Amino acid sequence: QVQLVESGGGLVQPGGSLGLSCTASGIFWFLAMGWYRQAPGQQRELVAVITSSGNTNYADSVKGRFTISRDNAKNTVYLQMNSLKPEDTAVYYCKLTATTFNSWGQGTQVTVSS
């Protein structure tokens, strides 16, 4: 059974930085891992994704500010968020994409506010 454990959310002032991490257990290989977010009243949207080969893709709204990376040995994906804006406030979810299924983390709250 695949489990995703997220950590690193919290409250930060505009212009600040936060780092998120997501560790997968119960699986040895997967196609991609990524981060999505959902603000109140909004649909869940892609933030960033990284494939098993290291290719990355970012939402236009976070390009140049967020960086996704992974540690294959630890089955962990990271999201470094810099120059945070109030509109980045959301619950951030980790998603693992395997060949036959997807798995989601429980979500971690990121609040950008002064």
Q: Brief overview, please?
A:
The chain is mostly beta strands. 0% of the residues lie in helices and 54% in strands.
Search tags:
114 residues; 0% helix; globular; 7-stranded mixed sheet; 4-stranded antiparallel sheet; mainly beta
Tell me about this structure.
The structure is a single chain. This protein is an all-beta fold and 114 residues long. It contains no helices and eleven strands. The strands form two sheets. Strands 2, 4, 5, 6, 9, 10 and 11 form a seven-stranded mixed β-sheet that branches.
Oligomer: single chain
H and E string: EEEEEEEEEEE
Largest sheet: 7 strands, mixed
> Helical percent range?
under 10%
- Would you count the extended β strands for me? 11
Topology (elements, then pairings):
Blueprint: E1 3-7, E2 10-12, E3 18-25, E4 32-38, E5 45-51, E6 56-58, E7 66-71, E8 76-81, E9 90-97, E10 102-104, E11 108-112
Parallel strand pairs: 2-11
Antiparallel strand pairs: 1-3, 3-8, 4-5, 4-9, 5-6, 7-8, 9-10, 9-11
